[in-house]
Amino acid sequence: MRLSYLFTAFLAGLSIASPIPNPGPAGAAELEVRGHRGGGHGGHGGSGGKGGKGGNGGNGGSQPAGPKIVETEAYKAAHAKHSGLKENDWYYFTVKTPLGQSIPGDAETKTELQQLQHRLGFEHIAVVVGEVVYTESGKGKKHHTIKKDFKATQFDMVKSPENKTIVRSPNWSPQPQKTLAYGGTTTKSKAERAKKNIPKDWKEEHPEYNVDTNSCNDFVQNYIAHL
Fold this sequence. Notes:
Residues 27-67, 182-203 are annotated as: Disordered. This protein is an alpha+beta fold.
């Protein structure tokens, strides 16, 4: 009995001392498969990110080409002398006729012209007053166009055959043979008031031409002073 008991106790001791076996290859494989399944599902969720390709639609949402810009000859001439032209703003320029060119409608004598030429250095002078106007057409369409214009009036004074003062105010259009020079800015109210009053007032105050006190330059300088 004693030997049997000792043998049994010995076997029990061996069992307790034996370490717990690690999971075999099959167990490890099962853990790995489980891990892949869990991560795989997350990866499929990431595929949903493909919806982000819809962002390519952004190419279709690119900004359309800007409008076509058309500039009139009057705008080009004014802009060449003052690059800061702005829509709806008012400006004035002087237009000088170089020496040797005739002035249509002017009855100044050769002697009077020579006196002016000697004093002023040019044949004739006028003042041009106008507004920068933008006109849009085809807005919202493929043919969207903006036309830039300088709508201006030219004011000058000449002598009649009867030695009377004549004030003229035609619409202005640039003439390459004449010299355009930037004068400055003004306002709509000043420009309209000058256009309405100065020609009439000047003729009343200076009914007759005088090379020293009532020449084209005297008129223009007075006009500019009111802008």
